What we know:
The protein has helices at residues 6-14, 20-33, 45-61, 70-77, 113-116, 140-147, 164-170, 204-214, 258-273, 289-304, 323-334, 337-349, 356-378, 396-399, 404-411, 416-421, 450-464, and strands spanning 40-43, 84-86, 153-158, 173-176, 196-201, 244-248, 277-281, 383-387, 425-432, 438-444, 475-478, 481-484.
Amino acid sequence: xxxxxxxxxxxxxxxxxxxxxxxxxxxxxxxxxxxxxxxxxxxxxxxxxxxxxxxxxxxxxxxxxxxxxxxxxxxxxxxxxxxxxxxxxxxxxxxxxxxxxxxxxxxxxxxxxxxxxxxxxxxxxxxxxxxxxxxxxxxxxxxxxxxxxxxxxxxxxxxxxxxxxxxxxxxxxxxxxxxxxxxxxxxxxxxxxxxxxxxxxxxxxxxxxxxxxxxxxxxxxxxxxxxxxxxxxxxxxxxxxxxxxxxxxxxxxxxxxxxxxxxxxxxxxxxxxxxxxxxxxxxxxxxxxxxxxxxxxxxxxxxxxxxxxxxxxxxxxxxxxxxxxxxxxxxxxxxxxxxxxxxxxxxxxxxxxxxxxxxxxxxxxxxxxxxxxxxxxxxxxxxxxxxxxxxxxxxxxxxxxxxxxxxxxxxxxxxxxxxxxxxxxxxxxxxxxxxxxxxxxxxxxxxxxxxxxxxxxxxxxxxxxxxxxxxxxxxxxxxxxxxxxxxxxxx
Length: 491
């Protein structure tokens, strides 16, 4: 039942073949049996069960939830059950979900039959982190939770790829909507001008269902567009002969693995053989995108993190020698090295003597990047097809050898430009690597053309028939010893 789509499970609920409480209990049970993934920070078991009971009552007398972020509120208004909060990099600053205060998220595919058949098995006496791979980030917990069947959909955020990156590594669909289509009210800001709530599901149809619930103007967020959003059901595309697919040549970046390149090329051939027009296009300023992003990101982080001063918001230090010392201790204790580093960099870029050379120039480059997309789509291109990540998910022990900034630069390089331009983009799981790990490809569409974007993604999803994860035995790490936990095996 946990493998069903949102449409299928919604029908089952309406027809009474399963109750919200039964469904909630199954999700919670699987969450408990997959704790080793570290996907959830908090499992709100009592709250979830209470909401499930209230959801059953909703069919009879309605349900009014408490205050929440707009995206959460909209889901609750439609009878969704909130299972818990998922794990992520601290303040969403990372690309591996390895820098959070609750520890790293483990990729469910680390415990799949497909992966274990490809790598040498290790004994329980070996170090915990010797074999499992990262979930991607920053919304790694959400991607891992969906991938492991512990929930049907999850929310993330996407500032430079934080929804699409973990979606690619965990073998799920990750949608970054057009900037302004979904309310940011309640989303802790990282880069206000690029942040968007992201959607993670196991199929494209489900992403469209969630989008239909979340999209639309919100008076509490002045950046949301005021045009009325009409939810849509995705058609089953059978003819792609009128479709023009662009392949940006600048996305052949250094570090792109041969496996990703092969999957990308095969996907382009798939469209071409089906009758679509596939052409190489140029986005000449893409190569400057990641540098531009780091300047703008740090500058906005410095501004946004200023609110966490220990007086009104966030952690407050016990140091009370002076206001200045309290501030310094509070922010040293309350932020990890990654967050502190971005704050310091941002304040440097925003200094009066540096403002024009860094922040203003970065904004000008951002406009050039956005204009590149306008020109390409204006030339008759309907959709862009690119890789999502440079490679499949890497082992944790390899990932942490690089510092956060270096890793983010590498991992966001293929996703970040869409944020600069505010365009919708979606990761679609495409194939398994030689190690038995997911490889995803990214589709980028025109602004506010999510229906076209997801329709093409759905057609592609049907063609590639990405295999469902086959979870084997999941183990729990406890007191320095790997212990067997309840087996989670699926056919």
